[in-house]
Design goal:
- It is built from 24 helices and 13 strands.
- The protein has 514 residues and is of the alpha+beta class.
- The protein has one domain: Cytochrome p450.
- The chain has a five-stranded mixed β-sheet with strand order 1-2-9-6-3, sandwiched between helices. Strands 4, 5, 10 and 13 form a four-stranded mixed β-sheet that branches.
- Helix 3 packs across helix 4.
- The longest helix has 31 residues.
- InterPro entries: Cyt_P450, Cyt_P450_E_grp-I, Cyt_P450_sf, Cytochrome_P450_monoxygenase.
- Keywords: Heme, Iron, Metal-binding.
C-alpha cells in the first residue's frame, strides 16, 4: 500500500510539473551530448562526428563503410573521430599497440553482431578476453599442419577439381565460340569446398557439381547482408534479445537460408562425433574434439570457420586475380617464373606449398594483392581500458579516455603514400623486390602481415588461406591464359560486414598447352 501511495504521489508531481520534467530530460540529454563531444574533441574529424553516429551508420547501410573509413582517414589523418565515442586509426603502430596491450577488449556492439547462432559465441564473436583466449588455445592446433595432417592433401583435391571444371566446361578453343566463366562464383565454390573438407572431413562438392549446393553460398551471403543491415540500424542486439531474438535469428528448423545451412553442417558434425572413437582422420574437427571442444561449442566453432574461412580467402583470390589480369606484364612475368620452377620440378600432381613460398615474384604478387585489395575490411573495434590510454601517432601523443571505441582503417593503412610512395594506389608487385631500404621493406612486410590481424587476435585460418592462395595461383597460371571478358565492368561488388561480396566476374580461359 505504501509503495502504491508513493508511486501515485510521484506520478502526480510529474503530471503537475510535466513541462519542467520535459525540460529537465532535454537538459540532461544535451549535457550528456556536450560531455561526449568534448571528451574526444582533441581528435580531428568531421564536425558531425562529435554529435552523431548517423553518418557512420549510413555508410554501413550503403555497404560502403570501408570507403568511408578510407576517405575520412585520408582527409583528417591517421587518427580520426567517426562518432561521439568512436575513433579509427590507419597507423599500424597504433593497431599493433591496441592488439597487444592488456586491458583492451573487443567492443560488444560490434562483435555480438558477428554471432552466427542465437546467444552463442564463437572464437571470433567472443568479447570476453579470457574466454576468447581459452577457446583459441583449444582450437589453434587444428589449423596447423602439425595436427591437421590432411590439410595440404585436402586443398590439393579441390585444386584438381577446379582445374578439371575449367577443362571440361569453360575452356575456350580456337575456331569455336568463346566460353566465359564467372570466376567469382567458382572461387567461392572452391573455398567452400576446401573449408568444408578441412573443417569436418566432407566436401560440399560444389566444384564437382558446378553448383551452389543447398544454396550454402547464397545463405552465407544473405546472412552477412542481414547482419550488416541490423548493425547499420544499431539493432544487432535485437537478434540476440530474449524471445524476439529467437524468432529473428536463424534456426536449424528453417527449411531454407542460413538455418538450413546450419542444420546440414551440424548433421555432418554429429555423424563424426558418433564415430569419434573409431574415426582415424586427422583433420580440423578431430583436433578440436581431441582438445576438449565438444557439444554446442564444437558446432559453433566449425560453423564460424565455414563462414569466415570461405569469404575471406575468396576475397583475396578475386582481388588478386582482377589486378593480375588487368596488368599483362605481371601475368607474363608470373608465368615465366612458374615455368622455370615447373621445369625443375621434383613433385607429382599439385605444386607443394613449400615450393610456391620460395618463389620471389609470386610472393610479391600475393603480398601486393593483399595490400591493394585487403580481403577483410572489418572495423574490428576495441574498447580502451577504464583508466584511458596514451597512444603515439606520427610521433605525437594522443590520449584516449577509458571506454572509447577504437577501430582500424585498413584500406588507408595499406594505401599509405608516406610508406608506399605516390603510386600507393597502383598494383605494382615489383615494389616488394626493388625496395633497397631494408628497414623500410621490413616495415612494409610487417604492415602487410596485419592483413591477417595481430597477436592473439590474428586470424586462425591464415595457414589454410595462404596455402589455398599459393597453390591456386600457381596452378591457374601454369595451366591457363586468362582475360577479363567485360573490362568495362569487370564485376559486381558490394561489401557487407567488412567482407566483399563479388559476382559477375566474367573471364575467358584458354589452355597454355594448346
Amino acid at each position: 500500500m505504501a509503495v502504491s501511495q508513493t508511486l501515485n504521489q510521484v506520478l502526480g508531481l510529474v503530471t503537475e510539473h510535466k513541462v519542467e520534467v520535459a525540460v529537465a530530460f532535454v537538459a540532461i540529454y544535451l549535457l550528456s551530448q556536450i560531455r561526449a563531444y568534448f571528451k574526444l574533441s582533441h581528435i580531428p574529424g568531421p564536425w558531425f562526428a562529435g554529435w552523431s553516429d548517423i553518418p557512420h551508420s549510413w555508410s554501413i547501410w550503403n555497404e560502403r563503410a570501408y570507403q568511408y573509413y578510407y576517405d575520412i582517414s585520408k582527409k583528417y589523418g591517421k587518427i580520426t573521430r567517426i562518432g561521439p565515442n568512436s575513433v579509427i586509426s590507419s597507423a599500424p603502430e597504433v593497431w599493433i599497440h591496441v592488439n597487444t596491450k592488456p586491458g583492451y577488449r573487443r567492443s560488444d556492439w560490434y562483435f555480438k553482431a558477428a554471432r552466427v547462432e542465437y546467444q552463442r559465441d564463437n572464437v571470433f564473436s567472443q568479447a570476453d578476453t579470457e574466454k576468447h583466449d581459452a577457446t583459441r588455445k583449444k582450437i589453434a592446433p587444428g589449423y596447423s599442419g602439425r595436427e591437421n595432417l590432411e590439410l595440404e592433401g585436402s586443398v590439393d583435391t579441390r585444386v584438381v577439381a577446379f582445374l578439371n571444371l575449367i577443362r571440361t566446361k569453360y575452356l575456350s578453343v580456337d575456331n569455336s565460340p568463346v566460353k566465359v566463366m564467372d570466376l567469382a562464383k567458382k572461387i567461392q565454390f572452391f573455398t567452400m569446398d576446401v573449408i568444408s573438407l578441412v573443417a569436418f572431413g566432407t566436401t560440399f562438392g560444389m566444384l564437382d557439381r558446378d553448383s551452389d549446393v543447398n544454396n550454402f553460398v547464397k545463405s552465407s551471403e544473405d546472412g552477412l547482408l542481414i547482419n550488416n543491415m541490423f548493425m547499420a540500424l544499431n539493432l544487432a542486439w535485437l537478434v540476440q534479445a530474449p524471445v524476439i531474438g529467437r524468432l529473428l535469428a536463424p534456426s536449424v528448423k528453417d527449411k531454407t537460408g542460413f538455418g538450413a545451412m546450419m542444420r546440414e553442417c551440424f548433421r555432418y558434425i554429429d555423424e563424426r562425433v558418433e564415430n569419434a572413437e573409431t574415426d582415424t582422420r586427422r583433420d580440423m574437427l578431430a583436433s578440436f574434439y581431441r582438445h576438449g571442444v565438444k557439444g554446442d561449442e564444437l558446432k559453433s566453432e566449425v560453423l564460424e570457420q565455414l563462414v569466415a574461412g570461405s569469404d575471406t580467402t575468396a576475397g583475396a583470390l578475386r582481388g588478386t586475380m582482377l589486378h593480375v589480369l588487368s596488368t599483362p606484364r605481371v601475368q607474363k612475368r608470373m608465368q615465366e617464373e612458374i615455368d622455370a620452377v615447373y621445369a625443375k620440378r621434383t613433385w607429382d600432381g599439385v605444386v607443394p606449398h613449400a615450393v610456391v613460398k620460395q618463389m620471389p615474384y609470386m610472393q610479391a604478387v600475393i603480398r601486393e594483392g593483399l595490400r591493394i585489395w585487403p580481403p577483410v575490411l572489418l572495423l574490428l573495434p576495441k574498447d580502451v581500458p577504464a583508466g584511458g590510454d596514451t597512444i603515439v601517432v606520427d610521433g605525437k601523443k594522443v590520449f584516449l579516455p577509458g571506454g572509447t571505441c577504437i577501430g582500424v582503417s585498413t584500406l588507408a593503412m595499406h594505401h599509405d603514400k608516406e610508406l608506399y610512395g605516390e603510386d600507393a594506389d597502383v598494383f605494382r608487385p615489383e615494389r616488394w623486390l626493388l625496395e633497397k631500404d631494408q628497414e623500410k621493406l621490413a616495415m612494409m612486410t610487417r604492415i602487410n602481415d596485419l592483413t591477417f590481424g595481430h597477436g592473439k587476435w590474428q586470424c586462425l585460418g591464415k595457414p589454410v588461406a595462404q596455402m589455398e592462395i599459393n597453390k591456386m595461383l600457381f596452378e591457374w597460371f601454369r595451366n591457363f591464359d586468362w582475360a577479363v571478358a567485360k573490362p568495362h565492368r569487370p564485376w559486381r561488388l558490394t561489401n557487407a560486414f567488412g567482407l566483399f561480396l563479388i559476382s559477375d566476374f566474367w573471364v575467358q580461359v584458354t589452355d597454355r598447352d594448346a
